[in-house]
Design a protein that fits this description.
By secondary structure, the chain is α+β, with helices and mostly antiparallel strands. It has helices at about 45-55, 70-75, 145-150, 155-160, 180-185, 225-240; strands at about 1-5, 20-25, 30-35, 60, 100, 125-130, 140-145, 165, 195, 200, 210, 215-220, 245, 255-260, 260-265, 275-280, 295-300. About 20% of the residues lie in helices and about 25% in strands.
């Protein structure tokens, strides 16, 4: 699996907009060098970052040391912000920032795409490292478009027609103590179930990607056992090492990833050591399948309190 500790290649000659981009994975991930996110970014630079995000799916900005206001300002360059989470409380006084705190039982050690249990999951997510353990605590990000391309043709054609029901009633963070159990109670305090296409067409690039992950718990038209087996088969292509990049955090780092065509995972490999990230997400649209059909709410509301985007 590719890691950020390997030597960095020289910038590619086709680097979008003159950005100093250095790949950190063969199929996903690049570091952006020489860009200070604390200052004002001109529209051309923002557009170049957006193009790089479409190409690389996950971008790493090292040693930025932004504060909350700086993270909010940067994330808002890519669209209107969501509130922190549909059910989980935000950072005090910061309604758009979700604390990802290992001490509070928030250990996302299950592959997932952020908030897919609502009809309009985020377009993009930003994570900023505040406290990092001396070992472990990395974040893995997978390219779901590459996973789709890896499928044998008959399986791709089958997946194109499938729909999955995503729900927050199945939390990716298994309760391991009372703090974690309280987090889970908050997480499921308002129940959502949403049907999404298993193959989502990216609204900007047109790429097809597997839109599943930990919140996808059943397939429309299939029973529990068949759903589980088919989802596990498809998910096995997402988590192939070739499709995954590992981000080793340093305090002050910021990662921006396209939530529409990635999954991510945070290994629970740092014991009782502290780990704190802040997450800010950009509001997204309603996913569309290969036949042009849009996602639909099965249970709960449209989470208008979470995302201002409607469709």
């Amino acid at each position: 699996m590719t890691t950020t500790t390997t030597p960095l290649a020289s910038p590619a000659p086709d680097t979008p907009g003159g950005l100093d981009l250095r790949r950190i994975g063969g199929r996903i991930g690049a570091e952006v060098h020489g860009l200070d996110l604390s200052g004002d970014l001109d529209p051309g630079t923002v557009a170049a970052v957006g193009r790089a995000l479409l190409e690389h799916k996950a971008l790493v900005f090292r040693d930025q040391h932004l504060d909350d206001a700086g993270q909010l300002r940067f994330a808002s360059l890519f669209g209107e912000l969501t509130t922190a989470h549909p059910t989980v409380p935000s950072v005090d006084g910061q309604p758009h920032i979700l604390p990802v705190d290992g001490d509070e039982g928030i250990r996302a050690n299950r592959w997932h795409t952020d908030v897919t249990f609502v009809r309009t999951p985020p377009k993009a997510s930003t994570l900023r490292a505040l406290v990092v353990p001396p070992y472990g605590g990395h974040t893995l990000i997978a390219n779901t478009a590459a996973a789709y391309r890896d499928l044998p043709e008959p399986l791709r054609e089958f997946a194109d027609r499938l729909w999955a029901v995503h729900t927050n009633a199945y939390d990716y963070a298994e309760p391991r103590d009372e703090k974690a159990a309280e987090h889970r109670r908050r997480f499921v305090s308002r129940r959502y179930r949403t049907a999404h296409p298993v193959v989502r067409v990216h609204p900007e690039s047109g790429e097809r990607g597997l839109f599943i992950g930990g919140f996808a718990q059943s397939l429309v038209g299939f029973g529990p056992e068949a759903s589980h087996d088919l989802l596990r088969l498809l998910q096995s292509y997402v988590v192939r090492p070739e499709n995954v990049v590992r981000i080793a955090w340093r305090p002050g780092d910021l990662v921006l990833f396209d939530n529409r065509i990635t999954q991510h995972y945070a290994p629970d490999d740092y014991g009782d050591l502290p780990r704190l990230l802040h997450r800010v997400t950009v509001a997204g649209d309603v996913p569309a399948g290969t036949d042009g059909s849009f996602s639909r709410t099965v249970e709960g509301d449209d989470a208008a309190h979470y995302t201002p985007v409607t469709a």
